[in-house]
What we know:
By secondary structure, the chain is mainly α. It has 16 helices and 6 strands. Strands 1-2 form a two-stranded antiparallel sheet. It has a two-stranded parallel sheet with strand order 3-4. Strand 1 (149-154) and strand 2 form a beta hairpin. Helix 4 (54-70) packs across helix 5 (83-95), helix 7 (164-189) packs antiparallel against helix 9 (224-260) and helix 7 runs parallel beside helix 15 (415-427). The longest helix is centred in the N-terminal third of the chain and has 37 residues, at 108-144. It is elongated.
Amino acid sequence: MKLWDKGISVNEWIERFTVGSDREMDLYLAEFDILGTIAHITMLETIGLIGKDELPILKKELIEIYQQIKVGNFTIEKEVEDVHSQVELMLTRKLGDLGKKVHSGRSRNDQVLLDCKLLIRSEILKTVEAIKRLFDVLISQSEKYKDVLMPGYTHMQVAMPSSFGLWFGAYAESLTDDVLLLQTAYKIANQNPLGSAAGYGSSFPINRTLTTRLLGFEDLSYNVVYAQMGRGKTEKITAFALSSVAATLSRLAMDICLYLSQNFAFVSLPEEFTTGSSIMPHKKNPDVFELIRAKCNKMQALPNNICLLLVNLPSGYFRDMQILKEMLFPAFAELRDSIDIAAYMMDKLIINRNILDDEHYRYLFSVEEVNKLVLKGIPFRDAYKQIAKEIANGKFKPEKKVHHTHIGSIGNLSNDKIKNKMKKNMERFRFEKINQSIEKILIS
Length: 444
């Protein structure tokens, strides 16, 4: 079944190529197609295109299909082109001509555009919740190990004292900015495109404000041409936000891979969290973090891939957009998988509390000694030269202590401020409004 079928059989090869992986990808959209259809027919009833007695019949059947989807009993049949066709086919089989009325006043273009926005909105919610779990682990570890010093590096050279409190907290705060980017993507996705039809509106007096309210959107995409232009743009911006999270995770994974090596030995993992070698019995490999690094590095190419797909498209809809689904939809779950396993691993990380006993780190405190001289009244440049001379002559004997008290330093991590920043960022999403709208729309 095809919604555009005019009675002419399409060449089998052409059909196979044009459908591509759409049946598989459209399963991601199924529940959202139902939600959008319920909102649409509710609106159609208010303008007389569906009878008052017909609406509850259609809605009841759609809710039953929604429940099938949620328990995994929904499939797109082989001869059916996409999820939109499958839903309409199921309605028509059950309700006859009444099932055909659900498509009045809309096109597959704004139907899939709506479904994609609803999916992105939902997936961002799940992703932000996963990020918050990792954030909580990092903040907890930062507090737990705030007094344990470790070397800080610049240019991969020993630089200045750091602490595990600072290190864990740095990645926690990085996630707060990643959440801000996701919030931007969420706000762009949270605008209703329904009613743009094929991109040029409809001669029916449709009520776009009503469907916006029913689906819990914050606003709508007013201009119908721009609503269609938003397809691809929303995905691209979302991909940039996902790639930002991936960049944070990839860098964290790289740190762990370094710090787990025998040359660093800053941290270790329980043996059951590592893998071994087929010929080297001593090996304990950090495969989880290596795979997180690889998966997240791959994800950082996602925005560029989407940009290349869109780069020379004029206004209006084009079939090129279909490929966006297979680019973006699986990326959410893959990223969350990395976030969740990272949270699990970081919670089990074992910290070496005696790193600085190693003589390699004796010069780590050179700046501390310079600053002590400055506090005694010696100009900074002269103090710098004095300590440099002691190091060159082998006479440098530092006191391995630090006295940092300013905001965000070793002695003042400001984790409470970072937690408050994340709290505010989370609250701005207003996920509860969306959840309430969805619950309400599913009441028969």
